[in-house]
Amino acid sequence: MTKSSITIALSFLIFLSSLSGLLAQTITVSGSVADENGGPIPGATVLVVDADKGAITDIDGQYTISGLPQGLTTLRVSFLGYRTLEQAVELGGNARVTQNFVLQESAVDLEEVTVTGKSMVQEVREKAFNVEVIDAKGLHATSLDLAHALDRSSGVRVRESGGVGSQMNFSINGFRGNQVRIFIDGIPMDNLGSAFQLNNIPVGLAERIEVYKGVVPISLGSDALGGAVNIITNTYNKSHLDVSYSYGSFNTHRTIVNAIYVAPESGFTVQLNAFQNYSNNNYKMRDIDVADINTGEYFRNQTVERFHDTYHNETAIAYIGFVNKPYADELLVGATLGQNYREIQTGARVAAVYGSWHRKGDIVMPRLKYRKDDLLIKGLNVRLNANYNLGSEQNIDTLNRRYNWFGQFREYTSPGGERSYSLYKYRNNTGVVMGNAEYKFREQHTLALSNTLNSFDREGQDQLNPDNDDFNEPRKNLKNIIGLGYTFESDAWNASLFVKDYFQQNKFTKVTELEGYNNYEYTDAVNTFNSLGYGTALTWFLNDNLQFKASYEKSYRLPESDELFGDLINLEGNIDLKPEHSNNFNLGGSAWINTNKYNRFNVNLSGFYRHAQDFIRPRLNNNQVMIVMDNLGSVTNVGIDGEIRYQHKNALSAGINLSYQDLRNNTQFEGGQTIESSVYRDRIPNEPFLFGNGDVTYTFDNLWNKGHRLNIGYNLLYVHAFYLYWPSQGSEKFDIPEQISHELTLSYFLNDKFQFTAECKNLADGKLYDNFSLQKPGRNFTGKIRYNIF
Amino acid sequence: MKSIHLFFILLVGSLLLGSCDDEGSDTPTPDPGEGTESGSKFIITATPLASEGVADYILTADDLSTGSVSTTGNGIEQDGTYRYYVTNNNKFFSMLYGQGNPGAVTTYELNAEGELEKLSDFQSETVRAFAAVDDDILTIKMTASADDPYLYWYRISTNSLTIVDEGQINAQEVADKENGELSYFSWITPKDDKVYLPYFTIKGTPEGNWGTDYPDEANIAVYSYPEMELLETLTDDRTSFIGRYFTSGLTFDEQGDGYAFSSAVPMDADYQLVPTLPSAVTRVSNATGDFDDYYFNLEEASDGYVIDSHIYAGNGKFIGIMQNKAEMNSAWGGGKEYAIIDVYNQTFSWVTGMPDGATVTNVTTGGNNLVSEDGSTVYVGITTETGSFVYNIDVASATATQGIEVEGGLITAINVLTY
């Protein structure tokens, strides 16, 4: 309880100082400072405005100020997170005056269990970028993973093919896949492999999640076309242990351990974040047509259980080093170690069933973190991060079988796989070095320089084909993004300007067949790209409760290694790919409205326009055997995200957000045509365009005893139905039906040390689909226990 | 339009489908369309031109010589971008090329009002070659990987709409090459109680890809049907392989002689063409069951063109979709010029009235086009830079006229059903 001890010490000091003046003066004011529920507020400042005197409340919220002259005076009471209160007090004949205060929480300070916390909101307000922040702490009691936590924010859509650990597709304002980038503590997560993905990392790892839409600050140095997510992990400056375990339907086990030790004197620190997920994902699928294993005839509308969908992953992130030293605020070395195992139950359509094909992956990633504020001169803040991923991925498909949904199979004696005979294993050897320097001068000006270097060097082999030289050819690339930015900040407005240079160099081997028997020539080839992007972000505070934002970026996304070199399985390389690029515009406003001291509203509205060209999209290669990526198509996207939150006292919090995006095909003439494409200006298919979330949380504080708290939370997800193929085409069409999912969470907190949570997802047991024909789990339950030691 | 009759495409030339013909001649053939109790409908499948999210749409039309039909707001959507169509037993089958995945085959027929009605669907494997054989559809799932040299055939009954038999073929054993190349069947051509499977050989290794060390030979594997036992392999060294990837190269005429078309397109590992023998027509004799000495050099007759795909109109007359050899830069199709090839008289004449090849962006290949029952007219799908049309080729005069416009997309196939 550091806060209290500081408070006591400070109060005592102030006490002492005020005692010295006691003899000369006659009047003493004392009293209590409490919150709206009558709870004492320790550490609040009580200031006598016209005298240079004050006090800080003690642990019971009590204060005393002595030595005040007679007459009218004004007392100002303030505390972080509460509205500052001024009160005129008439100091008359009595030597002792009692004056109690009740502080109202400030509008921007929503309680931890709601969406945003104080410091973050401030941060958000100061940023001119179109950014949304999710307070992950408020979700720590739940069993959510990062992906599902993100899914609750406006403009973001997460689509999954099934249960725990299934394939996931993430989009921000309609940009998806590699067009949006994920960062952890500012470090790009590209190519981290299957063992470290948004939907297998528990939300408990994060403190908050920032979602940048359209315009990405240079500190996140990457080639994001349409947005980025930055996950800020938990930081503690003192020893702490947090352990949780949950068990739920489909034999799902999840464990999280966050542990940190900080030596009080030396600043020596050891940190460990470890988590585990396991699930059989054996949920029921309803109304499935099951094919007869021999004849192909369908048995209609069967309810079947998924039988080959077990997923598990285990990951540990450990650091050792020093904090708060003269040479470094933080100097840590560590590693992320993890592995995952995923059975593959279905293909892209429910008709394709597998019973033994699976994938494995691991991550072995050493890492260095350095951070120092005010390096050499005041205002110069420096950050350096580096990591190297030695992890590998393996595709295991060695049983020549054909399964159906009843789990029956027929086996062929010849070698082969269910989909493609393979034991191919590869490592991408990705390295990232990222440096940031920020110099703040003359209060209002900040210059920032950021550089991110990514390297990639794929090695692979297939045990089934050990002599295959093809896997040994170089597949290397180097990507460097350098950004320079300037920010001006004043009370009323601030502005940022930035430029980014995108550079990429690819090394590959060209195989040429020579005369003769199985004779090939290998020649090394190199190609490079260079593109310049730029942008600006502005914000204006009309008053404390109203803010406007505008931003623009010309952004690029460089082709991925897989897109350039292929993946040797399904993807053929295309070394001639150009970067995708887009013009992103955002306009937004936020308002904080307090109807009275108990009811507060926060309204956010933002509109955006995107115009993207040279999209990297898959097409079949010439012989239709493999997919090849190509620069195809252009789209525009106009959309609006809106959010309203309501807070009643500290007890009730409710919010609703809705996103609409009008993604349109902007390719007027398809290759070689002089007539307008029949799908020009049609809505991009197979992409949700209207979706939202609603949530209500009610907190019973001090339920029967002090420190006992009960939270009841409800969450609603809505996704409008959308077409699988172009909306304008055809009259009998396939669609992905409307999705409405209800979630109920009950959490019981005991002195903030123990938490017990019960959850029900998909309460109405609806048939939910994110992707055509791929059913997600029905109603399911989870119980969770969490223990915290500070 | 009176003469127009069902005759379906994929098996043009195999006149084994006597039942089909008889069925047709039993009923008088009124003009398709309005108010008739029975008739026929043309089934056009088209796919919009776009870089993503593309499905095929099944459209119907009464007349191919005029008017227009559109995929916008019209047509039955088919799941999966790459679908293939075959008609047999007066049923229309929509099959999926699922990149190795199984998928649903949907079956349609015309109801009494002449509207397409879904009969059923059933699960089948991905297809690489398919053909109507008797009352069945024979499909083959190929392999292009030497690690897994087995290909699979499936016999689908058009009566029960289920797979009734299946089997495996070792493509390395069929090819029987010392370097382990795989046989890759270009297509399936039935005759009597046999099916003829012309093939090319490919290395099927990651380095060798679709390349071959045997560019100068033609091979046809002959299987018994329905047992699918390998009876013999016919070999000829006057041309390169018969047919080409996903394209039929063999058609039997009314006398039972098989005319074999070589496109002369063997390739290397980079999908580049390898020099070989000229594109030509050879013959599998009905009498001997083997190649005879018939030889018609198409490159010579056309002055530098190779055949891409062919359509048999009857009486020894073929429509050849030709490709200028000098302009070929890959081994995959791309023919845009049409010619009448008379294999009996060994004459070659260009079809007039077709759009200029330079403006053609896509054509409906060989067997996906339609021949009128009497063989006098061949309906071919063409996409030019100004749209997609069905051209009506009059075989006798080698002239073409522009017919129905298909708004919105490429014409993947033209079929006909009766009701």
Structure, explained:
The complex is a heterodimer of chains A (790) and B (419). Chain A is mainly beta. Chain A is 5% helix and 55% strand. Chain A is built from four helices and 52 strands. In chain A, the strands form ten sheets. Chain A has a 22-stranded antiparallel beta barrel. Chain A has a five-stranded mixed sheet with strand order 9-15-16-13-14. Chain B has 419 residues and is mainly β. Helices cover 5% and strands 47% of the residues of chain B. Chain B has helices at 18-26, 171-175, 298-302; strands spanning 40-48, 56-61, 68-70, 76-78, 83-88, 91-96, 103-110, 116-124, 129-133, 136-141, 150-157, 162-170, 182-185, 189-191, 194-202, 218-224, 230-236, 250-252, 258-262, 280-284, 291-297, 305-314, 317-324, 337-342, 347-350, 360-363, 370-371, 377-384, 387-394, 399-407, 409-418. In chain B, the strands form seven sheets. In chain B, strands 3, 26, 27, 28, 29 and 30 form a six-stranded mixed sheet that branches. In chain B, strands 13, 14, 15, 16 and 17 form a five-stranded antiparallel sheet that branches. The radius of gyration of chain B is 20 Å and the shape is globular. Chains A and B meet through strand 34 and strand 40 of A and strand 7, strand 8 and strand 12 of B.
